[in-house]
Amino acid sequence: MSGADFIEVTDGALDAQACAAIVARMRASDSLQPGRIGGGVFPELKHSRDQHITGDAAWADVEQQLNTAVYAGLLAYLRRYPQALIAPLMLQQAGEDGKPRRLAAEDFPGMPDERLGELARTCLRPGAINLQWYRAGEGGYPYWHCELYPKDGSAETLHRHLLWTIYLNDDFDEGETEFLFQQRKVAPHTGSLLFAPTAFTHTHRGNRPQRGDKFIATSWILFQRAEALFGAR
Hints:
The chain is an alpha+beta fold. The protein is built from 5 helices and 16 strands.
């Protein structure tokens, strides 16, 4: 794992036809809103038109499509970086003798999908999904930022563990997701899925698309809240 930057890109996570259908629905939507960041609407920092779809019955099919694609990518990510689960939580499962045994990184590569999925669902949960439309030459998220934000009194935003983006089109120039410290630009490809950690170590920005509009779906993988993980105290 020497030299790992913890940024993973999976091509073809969502098929091109599904991506095109989402883009068409976004273009026709009458409920797009100005893109927001944690502190509100600041178009000089993030300039987009957004569609929040989680909990919206009209977009339930799209939410399901995206979550299914992300779930498969998450299991692959956890196999490569099992520390994403075992470092913060010191997980234990019953061994062959029925006694609790602390999980180690070596347990993950051969773990069946069903078991790994159960572990992931126990520890993690999906965030609210936002569809974003960046117009050519003006849209973008050029502000260097990370995904942790302490303003929320419920600490919900501090539960964000991984960020993800699915690129819904690529018929434009530039518009990369650029990571500051890793000195890496991820070029959008239709249907590809990006995962990265949420903390300042993965400070990033969304570069402005040129000669074509850019469409993405984006959200986070969050830890379960303490009461779900550890019970009421």
